[in-house]
Amino acid sequence: MDIKAKAYQKYQLDWMLSHGKSLDDLMDCMQGWWEDDETREWCSPKTAFADFEKAGFDGELWACFDEFLESEYLDIPYMRRLLTAKEFEEYLQDQQEKASIAAFRDEFDFLSNFYPVKIRYNGVTFHNAEAAFQAQKDPARSKEFAILAPAEAKRLGRRVNLRNNWEDIKVVEMIGILQAKFQQNPEFLKKLLDTGDKVLIEGNTWHDNYWGSCHCAKCKNQGQNMLGRSLMQLREAFRKEIEGYAGN
Ligand SMILES: [Zn+2]
Predict the structure, then answer these.
(1) What average pLDDT does range 1-23 have in this prediction?
(2) Residue-range domains of the chain with CATH
């Protein structure tokens, strides 16, 4: 079986466990759903299961396969927990094949937060996404970041007083800043959309395994890649928005 299909099955089981459902519950639900419809004719258990998926457990169900591929399947630490060591190897291979954009440099440097670009965010204009992001750590000092180069902003970001809930909101802030970056700079938005369905990985060598994924011998490219994932999420949202306009 294809690693994607295998991973999806394990995810379905994991979803059941984490939602307190047993195999018995699954059987009961399927049987109830079957008996509710008297016109239903015999079909194979596989077909019945595929049909049951439209109903779920009282309307509650795991993500569909396509949704799964765009979310849980991209979550490397989750996949590492879910899969056996051998399957995980296969999974990484599969990810690597799609991940033709494994670092934000050369023609993909515009995806990096260090890339020079004017971004207006929360009333201040910054000269790169890194400065805009670091500034959110301490909004009272936000203006100080406006003129800073990315490395300077990162340094100052380490010295400010972190707002209380920073850990809870940092991803939302990052997505907001990236959204502003691409909305305000259509030439970059076009380039982002041109990356199609490629997996975007902020590959690095400095052990940043939260925003990116470090490929040194110790980290072995298993980071959470939150920056790459945020960019993919935005790319999808922008694409849907554009398709929506075209459809009207
Ligand atoms: Zn490393």
Answers:
(1) 94
(2) 3-98 (no CATH), 106-247 (1.10.357.40)
